Amino acid sequence: MGESYGGLPPGASMEAVARFLAGLRGSSAWPASPASAESFGLPERRPAAVVDADPLEEVAEGGLAVPGVPEPGFAAFLDGIQRSVVLPGGPHGVPLVYGTVAAAIRRRRDDRVLETWGGGAIVRHSLYAPVARADRGVLGQAGAAGLDVVDTAAEGAHPHEVLSAALDAIHRARGAVEAELATRWCARETALLYVDGGIAGLGEPASSDRAVGVVKSHRTVYGGQAAMNAAFAMAAGQRTHAFTVEGRGRASVASWYLRLHAGDGTDPFGGIVRVEVASGAFTSERADSVSRWILAERSPVALPDPRWRVMPYGIRAVEEYLRAAVPR
Amino acid sequence: MAAILGHVVATERRPNTPHEFHFWTALDAPVGIGTIVRVEGTDAVAGHVPQVYGVVVEGFSYSDLETPLHDVLGADGSPERAMRVPTRRTEIRLYTAAVLRHVPDEPLQPVALGGVYLADDADVAVALRMDRYTQGEAPTGIPIGLYRAGATASPIYLDADFLLGPEAAHLNITGVSGLATKTSAVEWLLASVFAHFPSAKGSVAALCFNVKGPDLCFLDQPAERLDGSDLDLYARLGVPARPFAGVEYFAPYTARGHTLNTLRSHDALSHNVHPLRWGLGEVLQHVEVLLNKDDVDAKADALIEFIRERIVGQEFRDPLLGADAHRVQTFSDLDQWFRGVLRAMEERNQDSWRTHHVATIRKVRNRLSNISTRCRGLVADDGLASDLPWGQFRDRGVYVVDVANLEEDAQDLIFARIITKLRELMEKRALGVDHLVVFVDELNKYAPSDGADTYVRKMLLDIAERGRYLGLVLFAAQQFRSQVHRRVVGNSGTALYGRMDVDELATPGYSTLAPATRARLSTLDKGELMVRHPHFAHPVFVRFPRPAVLSGREGVERFPAAGEPTLEEAIVRSLRQLDKAVTLEWVKDAIALAEEDEVLRARNRTLQVRPDDVKAFFRAQLRRRVHAEPAAPRPRPVIRSSPGDDPYAF
Ligand SMILES: Nc1ncnc2c1ncn2[C@@H]1O[C@H](COP(=O)(O)OP(=O)(O)OP(=O)(O)O)[C@@H](O)[C@H]1O
Ligand SMILES: [Mg+2]
Question: What's this model's pTM, rounded to 2 decimal places?
């Protein structure tokens, strides 16, 4: 993957790269604030769904109290970000998307201050385009300048379809750097890593007892109607019974819902996260311990982030770090 | 090379300029308000990587918390829980520094986003431009104190050329009572000046007005307590931790006249205490000092001028006064003269004489005879003056004039005459030394910013504005700088600040200081000072040692002031300075038949003349008086013999 661009200084800002590309295309009319692919508001390609799952514990109708006092158990936090810039209207209406993905782990020192683990963030920049249909001249020169070109192989004629494909590819690239970092952690460290998002798709870490995944979004609800009902019934600090989550091409992991905060009255999932741990060593006691550790991360709060009810401060700190460390 | 301490940052909203920059440090960095740092430039300009030196003037700390409410929320309202959070919020220590110096000086650019290092000894010297005057052929550095930060402890030097002239001069020190160590700082600095004043620049002495209690009464006695840390400072700054060697004290008599009006009256310390006593001639030169407050108009002025020019100290003849010549030497002579004039005018029914109206003559007589009453103890009726050693000031000498217990009039007269005299002599280069430091404590009393334009204030202003060309340098102290006349403080090249009063800090004079610097000033420890000096682009903080002299408070305990003695005791004490064989018995016998006035006069005369045979001289004075001046009636007019006729004069 490209981390230097020949004609461009390594680590050049996204805007600098975008201008460089605009130059290649001979386009002097460059928008004052270039748009990101995310800003087009393209529809989610994944439909919302409730899927069944095999219970790992006795199915409960409501929330299960997590015994004991919340206590910190995580040593580090992993998160990733992605960014994109759209280069509008090529000769055939095929947009190019320049994307950056990055991930970092911030470890908690003994004095409770976070520091970046493993020498910094992993940052990847690529140019996303359907190679067969894009402006070959530009792609050729971009490649020559050292830019990594990813073929999204998009087929639809609509430019939005091209953008959607690019976004999917960027999303996958982000998952890849997260997985890379999580794998490194599990290989080198013995302490527990808090992963923002699931661990099922991370490869090795999905079966490691050193990583816990915490999922904030609930486009797919696992465990069927029973788990969902139980989840909605939970009070803050309670969890649901655990179940096995299996997905296409993913490892199977043990999972359960946990309510960090009372709902806000509008979003039924407000304050609820879904936890993923390796299924190999699953016990109810482990579900309780992991739940206690997660609950302990409710303070300090991640405000002013709007996702503060489901996002610990440690993850916000990783995001802030990545925002500061990755040039825009 | 030293470890990096911080990193310079700048934002559009808070940019760096050529005179100010911002940097952040680790949470445990040894940086505080007043710390001197060096910034290493990032890019060479004209072949040089610029180095910028600065002093920290402000500090900020904040976290990623957007509102304090979020912390409350996260801790569920429990401060205890807030302390136990598993992760500490990201926190910043952000400092603002004022630029002290750019190397090279040109081009003057905003500070680069470089690494920040704690200044070491050499850096401090460069930062404060001390390298220009502490090194080379003729160094002129005068240590003022030690600057400390982290492991650095660097001596800070003032430039003698800018402290004692000719480039700039004068020193002013401000701070609250008791904690600011103002008097102590001046004592220390005098010792430092005496130890380091370059010989190429000639001799230097100090004249100190003791204006408060026993403050400066024991400058020749060793301090009771100097800690190891004080001694270290003396050693590090190269100043001997010794009291002053050549100190002379001067004080007028008390109103009763038995003894000198000073708290330095212990027998063991009397050897260098001298009376300050002025006769008509001395007083008349400065009579405006005391009269300008009253209703003295041009007419009265003219008469005074006439008396000064034509009467005092010379033979005066006028048909009005008959054939005899008048010779006015003393206040009592003058009064006799006035009496004669007025009586003669009355007898001839004349209401003016030599253009002076009788009312004016009466008024002036009144005012002048008043002076000897108002300044009793200082003003001699009898013309026997005892003064400072004009013309014979010695190198490294300290001359203390004790005015602490005097009435305002006497103080004014003393200030006015001494300062005028110093000016005169320094102008003629005839004082005996090339440079003289005049120390005036409680300056807000003597040169206040408001109130009448007094003679004393004029004199102080005059030193402040013109003294540096003459080698006459004012060291002044006061609690509230804002209450001192602007031009007096404005002319001091060097300013020291001890612990400051917050109300004083709120006055406009301090608005250029950053709030944190002001806050530090209001909490300074004893022995800490902020120093402003022409070479320093921004003030720096230093520590100085306790003075090596006995403090006033301890002094009066160790050497309690003698009580107001009986006449006999007073005479014994005085004469024993000249002759140890004088006993109380002898004095009692000698003065048995004399009036108190006569006795005091005889004593004064003896002290002035310092004869070889003290006893004989003293007795002779009494005899002469007793025989020469039978009680009553006095012959009119009395024409007294001049001291030149005195058989005992030498
Ligand atoms: N360098 C020093 N370190 C520590 N203490 C000191 C130092 N110098 C003086 N002091 C102490 O501080 C006290 C006050 O000192 P000083 O009399 O000089 O203050 P000041 O400002 O002149 O007070 P005031 O306004 O009352 O005249 C004294 O008790 C003295 O012992
Ligand atoms: Mg004092």
Answer: 0.83
